[in-house]
Amino acid sequence: MKNVTDSFLFLGYWPPAGSFGLNTDILATNLINLSVVLGVLIFFGKRVLNDLLDNRKQRILKTIRNSDELREGAIERLEKARARLQKVEIEADRYRANEYSGIERSRLNLIHSISKTLEQLENYKNESIRFEQQRAINQVRQRVFQQALLGALGTLNSCLNDELHLRTISANIGMFGSMKEITD
Length: 184
Known about the structure:
Blueprint: H1 4-10, H2 26-159, H3 162-183
């Protein structure tokens, strides 16, 4: 039998030809077993591994296509939303402008109405003042006239005697008579 250390150098111990035996050299048998297992795995596992990788590749490509479609759909919806937003902003600006102009018109109408009302009130006030002034003037005239009449009557009564009274009446009748002839 060979020495165990010799098997390390030769990497394997082969029984003599014609006989069948068990190889007890662990390192040599592990390498052979490992190479056989790897060969079988590569031969049979290659198809399975390729199928798995192809399936994975197809799923990744499908996911990428789906995400591209979703992204394009999202971009379309975003553009539509932006267009609607722009329309709404334009409408809101127009509405604001109309409302501001309407408010400005209402304010101007109110100012005009108030100024007209104030002008009318000023006219009424001035008319009332003129009316009161005229009434006060008429009252003063009436009093002055009454005072003058009372004074004249007092003077006439004190100065008039019967003879003067008759002459005055005759003169007045004469004036009325001549006026009647002129008018006829």
